[in-house]
Amino acid sequence: MNQETIYIQSFNIKGGDFANAGTVSVKIKKVLKEIGVKPEIVYRVSICCYEAEMNIVMYADEAKLDFSVTPEQIIVEINDKGPGIENIEMAMKEGYSTATREMREMGFGAGMGLPNIKKNSDEFIIESEVSKGTKFLFKVNLD
Amino acid sequence: MLNIETYKHSIYFEPSKCNGDMACLKVCPVEAIRVRNKKARMLEEKCIDCGVCVKVCESNAIIPLTNSFTDFSKFKYTIGIPSFALYSQFERQVAPKTILSALKKIGFDEVVDITDFCVTEFRAIEKYMKENPGRKPLISTFCPTCIRLIQIKYPELLKNVIPTIPPMELAAREAKKEFSARFGVDKSEIGVIYITPCPSKMILISQNEGTFYSDFDGAIAISDIYNTLYSAINNVKKSKENELEHFEINGFGLNFANIGGLTSLLEGDNYITVSGINDVLFILEEIENGKLNDIDLVELHSCIEGCVGGSLVVENIYLAANKIKYIIERYGEKKLPVSRRDSFKAEDIYYDNIFEPLPAPLIDSDLKSAITKISERKEIYSKLPGINCGACGSPTCFTFAEDIVKGDAKLNDCIYMFNDELKRKLKEKMLEILDLQTNLNEK
To answer: Is the domain of B244 the same as that of B383?
Structure first.
């Protein structure tokens, strides 16, 4: 498989910044639309990015998101500094959430975030170390 | 030269009239205007026919492609159907029925008010909302500009648009049918004319193809008819009531004349009304980013205050809006009329798959070349002053960089870049001269 990266862009995301939550996924979506990625793929990537972004805003201190495009795939890698995920298996279950009451009142924390990324990506890797941080890597095929 | 058969727009830039003052360049909400060699021109794949440029052009070089009366001489009979905006163009005391009477007197064989059809429209929208509860937010708009904007910039949102045929279109179709039946004349002999506040209606009329079909045969601008109508109204006012034809205005349907009129009639309150093209752009962006998924319905109007804010009206838009409110206050009715039954069937009221996407062409159809061009654009953009002065003839430094990549502009068209180059060349020349002088002195 040709994995030559033809586009790369990095973003920083701050934890707790609810006012700007979602702006990175909007920027990524714009790029994808402009380079002519099919709407269905754009939709899937932006859902994944949005969920990942929300996850960072809700739980992590800060994160770096690397977004790259190869002729075959869209690859997003996110490394965050934060509490990490204790039980990844539970976190991947629909409806499971460790969100606080305040977060839920704001309409977040329905426990659909990680399952949604899994559902909308073609490959999803998650690694976490408690009290250090979490690494997300997801890929969406262009065809 | 403009080929009217294939041209897809309702406005036209006439180069011989353009004075190159660039007033239009900056106001275009979709960056669809470029000025080259002191003449403005339109990027046809980007223009949404909002008419904002028509309002600001002082040399009248942006020409609305509406019709004049003589265009309809080929029809034996004519039917006039006014936009609600016409009701707001005269003094407050002038009732809609007076305006309709006057309209008939200036040469139409029949004049049809659209309020009745708004009732049908209301029922159709209500029904559609009940049948599609999961699709949020639904978008309702009778504005051809808003539809075009969604087709070009937000094609994914087309599925949210309620596909009802607008009330004026229902009116046009029914009026033609009824007139033909009543007087036993062929439909081809009847011209149905929209009295329009803006040119955008023409994009529907001129593109009579497929399901994207209009029953109107043309449109006359309110501003073109205003003077004639004004004196006709004064004559009508002098006439006795029994000398005039009686026009019935449906009070419930009249609510549609106002922005937010539709949503004010619906049950519940989870609706948004947006008017003005820049706000429409903003809200569509928000919808696309999933921010409005809890809202039931969004009502869109390209012009501020709705159709009374069109580019082809005469009255000041806020006074016009004030008069619309007055007319609704006076003749309006909030209760849905129950006595009359609709003769319309669902297939008469909904378009089937009319709104096809019309995305603007990509920077390059090949993914890799597209990315290369985007990096090129970024590279060029980083050199530019970033003050968006527009002197180059592109509306912003960013669009200028894009135009260079497309081959439609060159870096030296930027006065800053040109200035730098000039300085550099001057310096070179000075050094040359100095060299020459030293050489001469040495000799």
So the answer is: no
